[in-house]
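A protein record pairs a chain with a discrete description of its three-dimensional fold. The following entry can be read in just this way:
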Amino acid sequence: KELTDAYSENTDQINRTSFNLYIHPALHLTNLLPIDIECSIDNVEQFALKPSQLYLVTSGSRSSSLLFTIPSYDNIKWISEPVDLKVEGKGDFNEHIVIFRNKAASNPQQILRMVLRVDTFHESYRLLFYSPLWILNRTDLKLEFQIENNRTFIDVIERPHLVCPEKIGSEANKKGQICVYGVDQGDAAAKWSEKFSLGVIKSTGLTSCRVPNDQIYMICVDIATSSFGLTKLVTLSPAMVVINKSTVGIEVVETVSNEEQGKWETINPEQLIPFWPRNIKESVMRVRYTHNQITSSPFNMNQKHRTLLRMEDEECPAIYVEVAATDFDSVKVIFEDYKIGDAPLLIVNSLENEPVSFCQVNDVRTQILPPSNYVYYTWTDPILPRELTVSCRSKSAKIGFTVRG
């Protein structure tokens, strides 16, 4: 209620008092989860909320008791313990840890945690229901996420995994770890990744997970803050992906000293797959067409470059590859169809009467270019130095080329 001075009707004299009455709902509840929830207020009013939905509660009060239900998460119906608004929450933001239990489970220790923040807003309570962490698994690996020694299984699914540590706010441990699920955790220091900070606004980096056969899985960890500011979005993706933007099916394999490391991985047109090298520092990659097994020369997959690979096929004589890499993000190996102009070199013989011969340094396969002709050329061996030996008559010279991203 608000009192203000007012004019008498049809006069310019202020000799009256007016009353402004503001009527607000007792509670404002917003669902900041990516899933549906249900809420019961004092066992009187029940309602459901979609993601991001706001509900104005008229039957409750600032001393109400709330009971939440998550109809389906991990194919389980979760029911919370009652939340008493009369009880002060934790931390500077009056936050309540909401404990959910699977009533159908035989193990009563199976719980799910969420957070209910209670703010005062125009003499009402503004309730924000959220999870501090959303973990998105964009790899093809089953993983575990650990914070405060609490582990969460991270399956290979599209939806985010909702994680809430036991401590929130200033008490929270803001460092997490991941490991490949199913690996014996007897030697935790060897299996869990190094810890990475979660208390950042935005961050992208790489972490590694070692498994018993000494293979190391490099995983990109991208951390962003949600638009509403309460949730950290943690996206786990492969440190290397292979993308086939060509019109033919291809297969790729890692090789070390000409020995294949694992099986050939098939990639259909317009498909993206994770790729897990066993030896990222020393290994190279080879590509072949699925339909006829014609194979390219090996090329580096851990350095930023682009080139055209010879394929010795009449219909598809070459395939374009680009390796896009940074020090802190994932590596993308992208294959595309050959187009005129994709070749790294255009060699023009401007002499009127003399042919010119050329080849890549250390290659014995020499090509001859007649006078007043030109040819598009790509490297016979992408790993060898990108230098040409050019000869005319009895003279020869070496020409080096700087590799640009």
